[in-house]
Amino acid sequence: MTNELDGFKVAILVADGFEQVEMTDPRTALEAAGAQADLISSANGNVKGWNHTEWGDEFSVDVPLDRADAKRYDALMLPGGVMNPDHLRITPGAIDFIKSFVVAGKPIAAICHAPWTLINAGAVNGRTITSWPSLRADLTNAGAKWVDRAVVKDGNILTSRKPDDLPAFNNAMVELFSEARGRARGASRA
Q: Is the pTM of this model over 0.90?
């Protein structure tokens, strides 16, 4: 257990149908590094995961989306799954929440189908992005350069393809968030 993210607050934005392991594994990695990782959703009380081809477990929502303030978080993590980002990208409050991180230049980590939401938040144009392969045309049409790699970091946005890439994604996410934490600490000392 490390504490490189001690005191760092991460918002994990989900809707019903998020790929469960794409939330639980990154959340565990963040918490092991000392971060506070809050599950945020427009779902009332609990949100339900998805395990590849069937419903997964229910998880308690830490902060309802309508009460979540992006200014209180240092970074954003977006799990995939097909239903989850498809729902989030047509939920104005979710897109506004994501846009707040984009505009503020805060780090964002998105895996699998989650870059769909980044399209709607205006965050992919001109960036190199990876995702689940079926999003390639959507991302390219939105101005991104799509590549087939386990993890891609372009500035403050980190993307990954699928659950098999979680070890690399988690390491890169903690590193990106740790870099952001270091920059924020340096700026506050200046």
A: yes
